[in-house]
Amino acid sequence: MNYFQNIVIALVFIFSINSSAQPQILNKSWKEVVNIKEGTWFVSAEAKDIAENVLLYQRNIGGWPKNIQMQKTLSKDEKQNLIALKNDPNETTTDNGATFQQMIFLSKIYRQVPDERYKKGFLLGLEYLLEAQYDNGGWPQFYPLKKGYYTHITYNDDSMVNILNVLKEIVDKTDFFSIKPSQETVKRVKIAFDKGIDCIVKTQYKQNGVLTGWCAQHDENTFTPAKARAYELASLSGKESAQIVLLLMSIENPSNEVINAVHFAVAWFDKAKIKGIREDRFYDESGKIVDKKIVLDTNAPDIWPRFMELDNNIPFFCDRDGVKKGSLAEIGAERRNGYSWYTNEPKEVLKKYEVWKERYFIGKTKVDIKQNKVPKDDFYITVAQDGSGDYTSIQDAINNTPSFPYKRVTIVVKNGIYYEKIKIHEWNTNLSLIGESKEKTIITYDDYFSKINLGRNSTFYTYTILVEGDNFFATNLTIQNSSGEVGQAIALSINANKVGITNCNILGNQDTLYATGEGNKQYLKGCYIEGTTDFVFGTATVLLENCTLHSLKNSYITAAATPEGTKYGFVFKNCKLTADEKVTEVYLGRPWRIHAKTVFINCEMGKQIKPEGWYNWFKPEAEKKTFYAEYNCSGYGFQPEKRTIWSHQLTKSEAKEYTNDSILGINSKGVTDKWYEKFDRK
């Protein structure tokens, strides 16, 4: 082979390399181009040509339009058109990766080719992001604002998370971006980032009072869930919420609000996951999806719906007509195959959470907070989530109190949401748990029967708070089981004697309040108790005074299991019986055990109370052995003439026997003990 032949072969080889490089890039998507690993390719003429396109597409306002394949070769006319559009700010956006992807590309090429135009384009993009932010910390989908749903705070397709990740790299002064803004700009970026995180915390959706995840869009003024396109209805989003939580978990030394947001979101992910199904996809010869089907598969990994109902996490699907459907198969092929309806992104959240929670457990604000430090006073302890008290965890405080103390131990709990399962042990006697305010001091957990899964008695393990120590007192708290309508789920379980609960919200669904223990006497005053079925149940003697009993659905308020021979069971005095608007058929009670005793005195009964009042629970013998009675009640729901014939209307003299002293004050030895009066004065 002679010299000239070698030259020809070499030229052919070089030509083949150059001619194949461009098609390789053209076959990539713009997102794939942006994700090319930093290195020598960014020195190539090809990368420089793409950078020229990126600069041409950038508007003078700093942002870029979306859905542009910026690596495509532009004709002379196309370039002239883009130059003419420079002063037109319309269609600039952060949706579908726009603006932040272009900034990443400019940073990558600037590291290899320090052309000042790249730096200027990057910094102009950063100014665009800062300018587009709402005062409340959110970002719209388009800026300048575009009429319609585009003005909503947009988490859809991770738009706002992408922005905040850009800002975070700058605030943290990492090496991710080769272009470094001025110190003054970094300060502005820090303010914008903090406002964005605050917006995320404030938009986290509360489902029945409990924080869950986020929606794809939130109203820019009220923060409430908002709809976008016809098939993107207001809903909780498994996909968008995942990236939000990953961002929150990446923050060093997060605020207590951020910590709580993560814990509650992870608990929601666990609740909302779907087991036993997989999504099968079918492709044509070009690789395009032509069908999707959901298949039962017990071995399939967990997945999450893209859209879920706001009140119960039930998945739904929509076509362009905006009508909700219960399954993917019910919508047309175009939307079924052209949209992502399921996601596995929360798996990454749950994986990283296992490490993260060791550093930032619930209620903990900084890594170095010591949870077992000795309080200044063994008998007066403060719990505060911001670290200003003796403990940040209620259970930690309880665990470090003296056992069987000779004088009362008071634990003051500052405002906050405490995601804890709390037990006041049998040796934690003479303990008071006093919240800063009923509305803002919230103790919540979300165990329920099938989640516990310990057999037929799983109900009794589902409590949020369990009281086993005698002489316990609680006030100014919200005690909640946040699991939703999923079966038996106790909020407050009291199995102790001489227990006083005043001015508390006790929230749940089925089996909200378990008041139990043969011979135990308990006093609730000024409390709000809500639930669905049997939401006040148990064996104890309980006086509920000036309380509100709120029914969330057609069912039963009480399910007493009063032991045989016990003089008093559940006694309601001066209480209000209310219900949700659609609730129309509520029984006063049914006998969990056949000697049940329940009495309503001077109570106001809403129209939801059924005329017959009481139900025998398929136990004919209970009609002879229960004692269900009322006296001097009022309201539409009090219809004594229509009550079951086996219930009672007390006479005036009989009603006089139902004094606080007689119900609570006579102990097993016949001695008067007015223990409840000290709580009544609180």
Automatic annotation (TrEMBL):
EC number: 3.1.1.11
Biological processes annotated in GO: cell wall modification; pectin catabolic process
GO molecular function: lyase activity; pectinesterase activity
InterPro entries documented for this protein: Pectate_lyase, Pectin_lyas_fold, Pectin_lyase_fold/virulence, Pectinesterase_Asp_AS, Pectinesterase_cat
Keyword Hydrolase among record annotations: yes
Pathways per UniProt: Glycan metabolism; pectin degradation; 2-dehydro-3-deoxy-D-gluconate from pectin: step 1/5
Enzyme class: hydrolase
Keywords, comma-separated and alphabetical: Aspartyl esterase, Hydrolase, Lyase
GO cellular component: cell outer membrane
Coiled-coil intervals: none
Keyword Manganese in annotation: no
Reactions accelerated catalytically: [(1->4)-alpha-D-galacturonosyl methyl ester](n) + n H2O = [(1->4)-alpha-D-galacturonosyl](n) + n methanol + n H(+)
Domain Pectinesterase catalytic: 381-664
Active site: 534
NCBIfam families: pec_lyase
Similarity field: Belongs to the pectinesterase family.
Protein name: Pectinesterase
Source organism (scientific name): Flavobacterium yafengii
Gene: pelA
